[in-house]
Amino acid sequence: MKFVKWLGIARAKFYEWRRRYGKLNEHNGKTPRDHWIEPWERQAIVDYFDTHPLEGYRRLTFMMLDDDVVAVSPATAYRVLRAAGRLDRHRPKPSKKGTGVARVGRRGSARRRRSRRWRRRSARGRRWFAKDWRAGL
Question: CA 134, CA 97: separation in Å to the nearest integer?
């Protein structure tokens, strides 16, 4: 244990290093899981979608199950088709974010407009209240 003190590390860290000695450095990496789909399954989903382009991803999933193509969940089919760029049917316009804003016909900020409206209403209300109050005397 003099060595651990000399290194200036905790004993737990030393024993962790000792346990991992000689192994690949995979303590922080992704380890393959049984439920991950394989590349051929991804390709099968995309190919099946290309042959049935009018079907949605949920219906497509159950059609693939019936035809014994691939057994995946609708969420997985959606993620695969989204990553392949197959779900962008309506082709949205490119974003204009960051290009500046052209304000036409706007007078002041929304906050100022709201406060002006409130002042008008409250002034009107006081006037009506004053009339009613004077009428009661």
Answer: 57
Integer Cα distance of 70 and 85 in angstroms: 19
Are the CB atoms for 17 and 10 separated by under 8 Å? Answer: no
The residues spanned by each domain of the chain are: 34-86
Check: CB of residue 77 under 8 Å from CB of residue 42. no
| pLDDT per position as a tens digit, 7-30 | 899 999 888 888 888 877 766 666
Buried b (16+ CB within 10 A) or exposed e, 22-40: eeeeeeeeeeeeeeebeee
71-107 confidence digits (pLDDT tens): 999 999 999 999 998 887 676 778 888 787 666 655 6
